[in-house]
TrEMBL record, chain A:
This is Proteasome subunit beta. Component of the 20S core complex of the 26S proteasome. The 26S proteasome is composed of a core protease (CP), known as the 20S proteasome, capped at one or both ends by the 19S regulatory particle (RP/PA700). The 20S proteasome core is composed of 28 subunits that are arranged in four stacked rings, resulting in a barrel-shaped structure. The two end rings are each formed by seven alpha subunits, and the two central rings are each formed by seven beta subunits. The catalytic chamber with the active sites is on the inside of the barrel. Gene3D superfamilies: Glutamine Phosphoribosylpyrophosphate, subunit 1, domain 1. It is found in: Cytoplasm; Nucleus. Keywords: Cytoplasm, Nucleus, Proteasome.
TrEMBL record, chain B:
GO terms for biological process: proteolysis involved in protein catabolic process. GO terms for molecular function: threonine-type endopeptidase activity. InterPro entries: Ntn_hydrolases_N, Pept_T1A_subB, Proteasome_bsu_CS, Proteasome_sua/b, Proteasome_suB-type. The keyword Transmembrane helix does not apply. One of its GO terms (cellular component) is proteasome core complex. Keywords: Cytoplasm, Hydrolase, Nucleus, Protease, Proteasome, Threonine protease, Zymogen. The active site is at 56 (nucleophile). It comes from the Eukaryota. Its main location: cytoplasm. This is Proteasome subunit beta. Signal peptide: none annotated. The gene is LOC111317985. It comes from Durio zibethinus. The lineage of its organism: Eukaryota, Viridiplantae, Streptophyta, Embryophyta, Tracheophyta.
Length: 255, 285
């Protein structure tokens, strides 16, 4: 994705003017002067997609490993998944520099929590921490689209999905990133679970077995790689269950 | 440039003596602001990037028995439905509810913050905060961020010592007391149904059905509203969720499909085709 200039100088002749967005001094020109605008954006989009699916006693989090800028691929081997706590893993797509800063911030806050409370943070607690951390940058947001996955205190899978400024929701499955508009309808078709808002309440967790969920994730990324240029190379899958956390890889299209 | 963040500070120091090992994380959180040449233009771009989920229908009204609050559950980002199961009725505390319209993160964060401040008020004053007080707290915070791009259109509904209370508060700093409100892109449709059917002396079931119908009709006509219609009731003992119905299913409940009697039914009859084929072959030969 091109980093868009906030405002593109209106005419070529502007090049003759002394370029200084903050300066009030300008050489006067015989023709109309255009206001010079800053055309550096602090954001970039490194692309990629992530998916998380919650099960009765497991949680699957997956993301591709391609990192791009514009039409270039920077690397084929970049992990977008970060382990925040024993039973809590986050996958983020968007601007990876902001993602890295966010991960560091959360890791530090988790360390303080462990020192103060002598235990690991639970997944729902980490979910709210992430929401607040994102909202504290409300006027200069982290360009990071996150899904958080893990096991809650009872060992049931839970997935939380976020927007860039911290609004979050507990769901049964979610996808974020450049391929999410391709992936989400497919997940809705396969996994659509009753809304947690219904009364009488119905379980939001998917009825799939762990192996079926992993298979579904592989299928979904294979399809997304066909039609999204920013998704591909390799798929990293992290599975959290009562036995712990394990990691799997699968090759995707490299074109 | 530092903003007034007294809304975020708690009364007691959370981390102990400031400035020690945990510097940087210990200080009361404040909103950083970027320093570009064109702050407004940058904020417009940041808002575009964030694209707050809006497009919604929420409503609340006071009647004889208390306050009825209802909302849909769809969140849209432009034309894409980002979620069909957003909680738009936020439980501030056991006897007060807030509704969400506008930016989802803004509403969630500031309602959570309001809940904290209401609890602190209870602890400091040994009594519950009134709906008037709670709505004023929120309105003052939002007024101080006026012009910064927050997008919140909320109703604070609750039951306090003076009875039922309902206030509309928005991110422009407006705060209105009233008996009936509807907020969001679907609000014109909801108002039509609500204003038509409203009577002060309704029973709880009638009021719940009116609220449900109003949300249903708004989701029917407004593309940005949909999902699940939730209805909450706030009474002297606090709030209670009365129903959560998928609006697709509500359609068939209100307009059931009556199987019509069939006059002539098309049935596949094998022998007719064979006879035709014989006739064709006979003609060809």
């Amino acid at each position: 994705m091109k980093s868009d200039a906030i405002n593109v100088p209106q005419n070529e002749i502007a090049a003759f003017l002394y370029f200084s967005p903050l300066s009030t001094k300008c050489f006067s020109a015989p023709f109309t002067m255009t206001k010079q605008q800053a055309n550096w954006s602090p954001y970039d989009n490194n692309g990629g997609s992530c998916v998380a699916i919650a099960g009765a006693d497991y949680c699957v989090i997956a993301a591709d490993t391609r990192m791009s800028t514009g039409y270039n691929i920077l690397t084929r081997d970049y992990s977008k998944i970060c382990k925040l706590a024993d039973k809590c893993v986050m996958a983020s797509s968007g601007f990876q520099a902001d993602v890295k800063a966010l991960q560091k911030q959360l890791a530090a806050r988790h360390l303080i929590y462990q020192h103060q409370h002598n235990k690991q943070m639970s997944c729902p607690a980490m979910a709210q921490l992430l929401s607040n951390t994102l909202y504290y940058k409300r006027f200069f947001p982290y360009y990071s689209f996150n899904v958080l996955g893990g096991l809650d205190n009872e060992g049931k899978g839970c997935v939380f999905t976020y927007d860039a400024v911290g609004s979050y929701e507990k769901v049964g499955y979610s996808s974020q990133g450049s391929g999410s508009t391709l992936i989400m309808p497919f997940l809705d078709n396969q996994l659509k679970s009753p809304s947690p808002l219904l009364l009488p309440a119905q379980d939001a967790v998917t009825p799939l077995m762990e192996a079926e969920a992993i298979d579904l994730v592989k299928t979904v990324f294979a399809s997304a790689s066909e039609r999204d240029i920013y998704t591909g190379d390799k798929l990293e899958i992290v599975v959290i269950n009562a036995d712990g956390i394990r990691r799997e890889y699968m090759d995707l299209r490299k074109d | 440039m530092k903003l007034d963040t007294s809304g975020l500070e708690s009364v007691a120091p959370v981390w102990g003596a400031p400035g020690e090992l945990v510097d940087g994380f210990a200080a009361a959180p404040s909103f950083e602001l970027p320093n570009p040449a064109d702050f407004d233009g940058f904020q417009k771009e940041a808002i575009q990037m964030v694209k707050p989920a809006k497009g919604t229908t929420t409503l609340a009204f006071i009647f004889k028995e208390g306050v009825m609050v209802a909302a849909d559950s769809r969140a849209s980002m432009g034309g894409y439905i980002s979620s069909q199961s957003v909680k738009k009725i936020i439980e501030i505390n056991p006897y007060m509810l807030g509704t969400m319209a506008g930016g989802a993160a803004d509403c969630q964060f500031w309602h959570r913050n309001l809940g904290i401040k209401c609890r602190l008020h209870e602890l400091a004053n040994k009594r519950r905060i009134s709906v008037t007080g709670a709505s004023k707290l929120l309105a003052n915070i939002l007024y101080s961020y006026r012009g910064m791009g927050l997008s919140i259109g909320t109703m604070i509904a609750g039951w306090d010592e003076t009875g039922p209370g309902l206030y509309y508060v928005d991110s422009e700093g407006g705060r209105l007391k009233g008996m009936r409100f509807s907020v969001g892109s679907g609000s014109p449709y909801a108002y039509g149904v609500l204003d038509n059917g409203y009577r002060y002396d309704m029973s709880i079931e009638e009021a719940a059905e009116l609220a449900r119908r109003a949300i249903y009709h708004a989701t029917f006509r407004d593309g940005a509203s949909g999902g699940v219609a939730s209805v909450y009731y706030v009474g002297p003992n606090g709030w209670k969720k009365l129903s959560g119905d998928d609006v697709g299913e509500l359609y068939y409940k209100y307009y059931p499909v009556i199987p019509s009697t069939v006059e002539q039914e098309m049935v596949e009859v094998e022998w007719e085709v064979e006879v035709e084929q014989e006739m064709v072959e006979g003609a060809g030969a």
